[in-house]
Amino acid sequence: MKLHAPEFDGLSKHIYFGTFVFLDNKRKSMPLEFIQLYEDAKNLLSNLEAGLIYNLKPELNTIYLSKNHARFNMFVNIENHSSRPILLNNKHVSIQR
Questions:
Q1: pTM value?
Q2: In this structure, what are the phi and psi dihedrals at residue 40, rounded to the nearest 5 degrees?
Q3: pLDDT tens across 47-80, in order?
């Protein structure tokens, strides 16, 4: 809804969707939707969201900007396979609690 604000009128808008795959210490991968219990998956996603917003400071996000709400450490590699490959392609983000 924030993209409908007057300051964004006339601008091209793009919404990106992501798939989250987590790696353990042995580099075994696990997609977020396969993680059991639901509460564990929810906590991982919440930590990831808080850490990315705090580190990347996106203009339209207002929660998590001024204080780090991450509860555990994560290393994130962002790959962009969209039609705009310059945006955050092969970007590495270290989320620290």
A1: 0.82
A2: -65, -45
A3: 999 999 999 999 888 888 889 999 999 999 998 8
Q: Which residues have CB under 8 Å from 10's CB, separation 6+?
A: none
Q: What is the phi/psi pair of residue 32, to 5°?
A: -55, -40
Residue 61, beta-bridge partner list:
none
* 97: Cβ contacts below 8 Å, ≥ 6 apart: 68, 70, 71, 72, 73
For the chain, the C-alpha Rg in angstroms (whole number) is 15
* Model confidence band, residue 83 (pLDDT cutoffs 50, 70, 90): confident
Paired tokens of 2: 């924030």
Find how far residue 8's CA is from the centre of its chain: 22
Contact 32, 41 (CB under 8 A): yes
88 contacts 76 by C-beta, under 8 angstroms: no
Kindly tell me the sign of the dihedral angle through the C-alpha atoms of 62, 65, 66, 67: positive
